[in-house]
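SAMPLE LOG
Freezer: B-3
Tube label: C17
Construct: single chain, 126 aa
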Amino acid sequence: METKLSRREREILDALYALGGSADAEGIRQRLTDPPTYSAVRAMLAKLEAKGTITHRAEGLRYIYSPVTSRTTAQKKAVSQLMRVFFGGSASEAAAALLKQAETLRSLMGDAFPRASANGSSGRGR
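STRUCTURE (predicted):
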């Protein structure tokens, strides 16, 4: 499903993922920057549902909305698009850019920014 989404539609999907994968219209509205009216959010949710991007289920008198695509699948898709658009599809160039960014943050923050060890952990407990 390669659906073109507006900035606000993307923000709604981001809110759904941030809210654990499902939420009602008011919960979503509260997560949006410069929140529109409740009615406007409901209209955008209906539009996203018509595009096949989200689905809903009835829970009492309210609808609970969920993305059709899992968070993991959406992450993989977003990373692939990022690599394709900004790094010519090269995973190694994308990784190098991320490492460079981490080094920049580390130099700005000093010891507050953890250094990754050889096995990929940050050295902090989980």
